[in-house]
Specification:
The complex is a heterodimer of chains A (450) and B (265).
Chain A (H helix, E strand, L loop, with lengths): L2 H6 L14 H39 L4 E10 L2 H4 L7 H4 L4 H18 L9 H5 L6 H11 L7 E7 L2 H7 L5 H6 L5 H12 L3 E5 L2 H4 L14 H32 L4 H14 L3 H15 L7 H25 L3 H9 L4 H29 L3 H5 L24 H9 L5 H31 L4
Antiparallel strand pairs in A: 1-2, 1-3
Chain B lengths: L15 E12 L2 E12 L3 E5 L6 H8 L9 E9 L2 E2 L7 H7 E4 L10 H12 L5 H14 L3 H4 L12 H14 L4 E5 L7 H14 L4 E5 L3 H7 L2 E6 L2 E7 H6 L4 H7 L5
Parallel strand pairs in B: 3-8, 3-9, 6-7, 7-8
Antiparallel strand pairs in B: 1-2, 1-4, 4-5, 9-10
Helix pairs in contact in B: 3-4, 3-6, 4-6, 6-7
Classes of the chains: A mainly alpha (450), B alpha/beta (265).
Chain lengths: 450, 265
């Protein structure tokens, strides 16, 4: 220290006891304590928001996984269901759900009587209306799958009407039934009697996951099957397009590209693309893939392409970060033993960057899975009841997507769709959770010390 | 300054392996190396000494064209390996680096097994026709790097799990495995403790039998112990180059004298 600075040095502190805090220390400790409190409050707020979200979704949505079914003894009359009598499913499929509906209309009151449940005060038509309009289709599918059942009397759990289901779940009450044109208090009383004799019960609803969407009039039959398949197809397309393109682009930009204005420009634009609102990608997809390239609307291929464009910047940015994080000493070591640039990248740098690349890719996919806005624009919002076929043909056939299905359910009038929207959100969240767990697992597995 | 266990210092070779002529290196606008002329002998240990930032590492990295990876670096003049200009347009740096191996300041084994670390060079250069030959090369290289006895029972364990000194010897084994003619060492002992340093120095003396070794070091004692020829760099200039004994006992340049007596640097 020179003399000049020594002259300006602060005077020596007056010696005080270590046992009591001086003013400065007190203030410093107080500000530290305040900061910790802010942090704790922020975390509490975040946790509270998460808990509220989960309670609301789980509270509304869990019931979507349970559905009310009514037990029916139905005799499968070969005269009606297979007029030609040759048990050929192709021939039998000519009998529509109306034929099955007529069978059930007779069978349902009959099985009630057989079980000793009184149907006094209600005509048979009203009793029949307690079943879902989807129930005949349910029976038909079952018969077509197994034609040998014809002629037998089978026990069949038929979907109950949405209002009856709502009554069992507490959504519909006697008071609301008075004002409701779709259900009468007498039907609800019958439902009570059926429950007492085990003819009506709530069961786990696999159909919610496997069934396609249903019309506004039959919420009890609405499922997520087509949406799950559509989302899965789109994820496949995104994975197979975005991962190779994104990783190749990142490796080129990070390791091989010359450092000049052009690469700077490309870098800036990639960062900007990551911030472009997703609906803009939807408009782009509509203009380029549907109007210009002539790909079919509502098809997973278009959705997949749009989501690929949206995911690419995320993957490129995370891959470049992962490549940058590989220590240069590894590159030097590889070059030092005479490896070419490409050998050093593919033998040493890429394996070390792999956990980061995979994590980025999966998080990008998860983001794409939850994306709704661009899909609305390219027609994935359409009402689709037919499953797309297996890939690759299925990529070009209409399908729905999970987040769009949630949106669809929420726009419908029947209150029964509220639980179905929440149920769809639960399925979506489970998918996202699985993808994040996979990301964590892969990172742990491939992580290596260096 | 002179250690008791210093090696034979007489220069026994006169065959020139590398000759540099009027080498200038620029990092952007800044000139890092000015007019360096030096002739490095075969089967000799040559030490580059000098204060930090004097350009000794930069010059070392010119010899196997590692500076090519730095976009702003520019090299003028010529460096000849066995009479061939290594900066000729027709020279592929990858081929050059197979003949001029390098060991870095910080041990940098690949995050692979010990075996794969050593076998990597021979594999990419196709030096082994089958697994038995590869095993032989790996064993020979590890023996050459005085590491075989310590690791022979755990060749499949990761190279990053070894101690610092072992890692550096593994890196030397890796460099030796590609059968280079010149071995460049950039402060190979700066991250090692005195015992590991002693082992590596012993190793350098053995390597002299087969290679031309060029070592950059901050430690003048080390230069005096292991080398036969010494070059003193200062501010990008090669100030003095001669037999190690002469440099340390009767330096011709006043700057050299100042450095070895601890007045600059």
């Amino acid at each position: 220290m020179t003399d000049a600075t020594a002259n300006h040095a602060p005077e020596a502190r007056t010696r005080s006891s270590l046992l009591e805090q001086d003013e400065r220390t007190r203030r410093r400790n107080a500000s530290e304590k305040r900061f910790r409190t802010y942090g704790a409050v922020a975390i509490c707020l975040a946790i509270a928001a998460l808990v509220m979200l989960l309670t609301s979704v789980l509270g509304n949505g869990t019931s979507a996984f349970f559905q009310t079914y009514a037990k029916i003894e139905v005799t499968l009359d070969p005269e009606v269901l297979d007029p030609k009598g040759n048990r050929d499913p192709a021939e039998m499929s000519k009998v529509t759900t109306i034929g099955y509906g007529n069978l059930m209309k007779k069978a349902f009151p009959a099985s009630l009587q057989a079980a000793g449940v009184s149907t006094e005060g209600i005509d048979d038509k009203e009793v029949g209306a307690m079943l879902s309009k989807e129930a005949p289709a349910q029976l038909r599918n079952r018969v077509l799958a197994n034609p040998d059942m014809l002629g037998e009397t089978i026990q069949f759990w038929a979907l109950a009407n949405g209002r009856i289901d709502g009554y069992l779940k507490g959504r519909v009450s006697m008071a609301s039934a008075e004002r409701d044109g779709n259900v009468s208090p007498e039907q609800l009383q019958l439902a009570d009697r059926m429950r007492a004799s085990d003819m009506l019960e709530k069961r786990f609803n696999w159909d919610f996951i496997t069934f396609p969407d249903a019309s506004e009039l039959r919420p009890e039959a609405a499922g997520l099957g087509v949406a799950i398949v559509g989302s899965a197809y789109m994820m496949l397309i995104v994975l197979f397009l975005a991962l190779p393109i994104g990783v190749a682009a990142s490796i080129y930009l990070e390791e091989f590209a010359p450092q000049n204005r052009l690469t700077d420009l490309i870098e800036v634009n990639i960062s900007n693309l990551a911030a472009v609102p997703s609906i803009v990608f939807g408009i782009l997809g509509l203009a380029v893939f549907i109007n210009y390239a002539g790909l079919p609307a509502s098809a997973p291929i278009v959705g997949g392409l749009v989501l690929t464009l949206m995911t690419l910047p995320t993957i490129i940015i995370s891959t470049r970060a992962a490549l940058k994080a590989v220590p240069p000493s590894i590159r030097d070591a590889a070059l030092g033993v005479g490896a070419s640039k490409m050998q050093s990248v593919f033998h040493h740098v890429l394996p070390l960057a792999l956990p980061g690349i995979l994590t980025g890719t999966i998080l990008g996919l998860a983001q794409a899975l939850g994306e709704t806005a661009p899909l609305l624009l390219i027609g994935m919002v359409a009402f689709v009841r037919d499953y797309p076929s297996w890939p690759v043909d299925g990529f070009f056939e209409p399908a729905s997507a999970l987040p769009v299905q949630v949106y669809n359910f929420t726009t419908r009038g029947d209150p029964a769709f509220v639980e179905r929207a929440s149920g769809a959100i639960i399925v979506l969240l489970i998918f996202l959770l699985c993808m994040n767990l996979l990301a964590i697992y892969l990172r742990r597995k491939f992580e290596r010390r260096w | 300054m002179y250690d008791m266990n210093r090696v034979e210092s007489a220069v026994t070779q006169d065959e020139i392996k590398i000759s540099a002529h009027n080498v200038q290196v620029y990092y952007g606008e800044k000139q890092a190396i000015k007019d360096v002329n030096v002739e490095i002998l075969d089967k000799t240990v040559t030490a580059f000494i000098g204060p930090s930032g004097c350009g000794k590492s930069t010059f070392l990295r010119c010899i196997n064209r590692m500076n090519d990876t730095i976009p702003v670096a520019r090299i003028e003049g010529e460096i000849r390996l066995d009479g061939e200009d290594i900066y000729d347009r027709r020279v592929d740096p990858v081929q050059l680096r197979a003949r001029v191996g390098m060991v870095f300041q910080k041990p940098n084994p690949f995050p692979k097994s010990i075996f794969d670390n050593v076998a990597y060079g021979p594999r990419i250069h196709g030096l082994a026709r089958n697994r038995a030959e590869l095993d032989e090369i790996v064993e020979k290289s590890l023996r050459g790097a005085a590491l075989w006895n310590e690791v022979k029972d755990r060749l499949q364990e990761p190279g990053t799990g070894l101690s610092g000194g072992q890692q550096q010897r593994l890196c030397i084994a890796r460099a030796v495995a590609t059968a280079p003619e010149v071995l460049l060492m950039d402060e190979p002992c700066s991250a090692l403790d005195p015992i590991a340093t002693g082992q590596v120095e012993e190793l350098i003396e053995q390597l002299r039998a087969d290679f031309s070794v060029v070592i950059v070091t901050h430690s003048m004692q080390q230069a005096a112990r292991v080398s036969q020829k010494t070059a003193f760099f200062h501010l990008g200039n090669l100030v003095e180059y001669g037999e190690t004994d002469d440099i340390f006992t009767k330096p011709k340049d006043s700057r050299t004298e100042a450095y070895i007596s601890g007045r600059i640097g």
